[in-house]
Amino acid sequence: MAILNKDKIYVQDVTMRDGMHALRHQMSLDDVATIAGALDRAGVDALEVTHGDGLSGSSFNYGFGSHSDLDWIGAAADAVETARITVLLVPGIGLADDLKDAYGAGARSVRIATHCTEADVSRQHIRVARDLGYDTACFLMMAHMTSPEALVAQALLMESYGAECVYVVDSAGAMLPADVTARVTALRENLKSETEVGIHTHENLHHGVANAVAGIQAGAVRVDGSLAGLGAGAGNAPIEAMIAVFDRLGIQTGCDFAQLSATADDVVRPLMDRPVRVDRESLMLGYAGVYSSFLRHAEKAAADYGIPTSDILVELGKRKMIGGQEDMIVDVALDLVAARKDAS
Fold first, then answer.
1. For residues 188 and 219, is the Cβ–Cβ distance under 8 A?
2. Which residue numbers are catalytic?
3. pTM of structure
4. Cα(9)–Cα(5) distance, rounded to whole angstroms?
5. pLDDT, the chain, mean
C-alpha cells in the first residue's frame, strides 16, 4: 500500500512524533486532535503520532509520555478524514504486538527505524507490518555516519524484507545538500523502481528545507516536515516553509501553505516550552554530528552536574554515540566532572 497518488510528492508530518522530543513527550490529547484535524484539512498525506522514540518509547530511559501511544493514535484517528495515521517503531523498543495494537487504534502506515548500519534488525517487524496491511516504510537513521555505498547495502536488506519505501534520515541535522543528493541518488539507482525513497531532515545547520529539496531533486518521493519545525534538536524542516518553497519550485504536494502556516503560528508555537530553533546547543548537534534527540537529555544532565550542555554534546560526538544510548549521557557528564576535578 505505497503512495496512491504518483503525480505529487507524499508529504508526511511528524509534529506529533518527532515534535514529542521537544515537548518531553507531554502533548495533550486535545492538542493532538486539533493538530491532526488541521493537517488533514491542509491536505497532508500522513501524520505520524507516537512517543518521540516510537511505540513503547515511554520509559525511564527515554522519558515518560503524558499519554499512551494508543490514546494519542486514537485521538488523531478520530480527527482526520483522509490522512494516514502513521507510527514509528524502533525494533527493540517497540515489539510486534505494538504494531497490532496500533493498527487496532487506527494506524495504517509505519516507519521501522534502525541505525544506518543495523537494518538487519528490522526483518521481523517489516514482515509483521506487511501482514497486518500497513503501508510499510523504513528509516535509516544517522545516515551521515556511513557512506552512500554502505547505506545502499542496508536499504537493499530492508527492501528484501518487504519495505515499500526507505528513508535517508539526517537525525543529527549534520548533512549538507550534496550529502543528501549522494545518498538519495545511490538508493534511487540501486533499489527496485517500485521501492520508494524518502528524505527526513533536521534544521541543526539550517539546511532542513534545502536538504528536503535536494532529496526530492535526487529522486525522493516522500518528504518529512513538522509545523513550526517542532522536533528534536533545532527541529525538523518546518512544513509550512517547506511547502512554500515547493510551491515556488513548482513541486506538487496538494498542501495548503496558508493553512499550515496559520496552524504553525496559532496552535504549535504556543506549545513550546523551549524555542525550537538553531541556537548554540542545537547548532552543536549538527556541527558534531550528534543525534538530535539527545538535546533535552543533555540539557538536563548539564543542569544536574554543572557542565555546559555544549561540552556534553561535543563529547557525545567524539564517542559517536547513537540513538538508544540516552542512558550514557549521564555517564559522559560524570566523566567530564571527574576530568575537571583531576585537572584542577
1. yes
2. 21
3. 0.93
4. 8
5. 95
